[in-house]
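Researcher: I'd like a structural prediction for the single chain below. Treat it as a standalone chain; there are no partners to consider.
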Amino acid sequence: RDIHATLAEAVFKTTPTKRLRNIMKRIEYGMIYGGGEDSIWCAIVSQYPEVAFSEVSEGCRMLREILSDATAWQQALLDAARRNKYVEEPLSGRREYFYEGFIEPTKVVNFPIQGAAAKIMNDAVQRLDAALDWTCESLLLQVHDELGIEGEDEGRLVKLIKNAMEAPVEYNGKTVVFPCEVKRGKDWGEMEVVAT
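Model: Treating it as a single chain, here is the predicted structure.
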């Protein structure tokens, strides 16, 4: 199920429309990256001018309640960064240091999330690179968490991409598999989901 729709339903206490889902998504991302209620509201009213500040404020309050563990995690990251003068990406151990002593809260929260996502994608690209037959198959591009590949044998490519993208990720004694949706088409406008 779509996480943004699920949270919109919990916060707004109704079956979410596309509009409510999009508003909730902006609230989520704003809060994840350290935005205040006023800046989150400004980002929302640019597309949804009818949304009142009080609605965004209440959405933020409710989201903090629902995701109290995430809020506590963010605070723990900030406390550790103030103490250690760095923040660490959890999968690789790569660090971002704050040499001047000024701790940037947005960077403290963003670095582990974006760094872990980049590590997961880089590992997937390396697995795919090793599996492709470069004489007749190609990895064309990567856009965030999507890969564009081409080749003659669609069945083989689907299997390769699923194996590369759905490899288990180990962290803190737990294993997580991120499901991958495979699409095909001659261009981005004609993409359709491949049943797997």
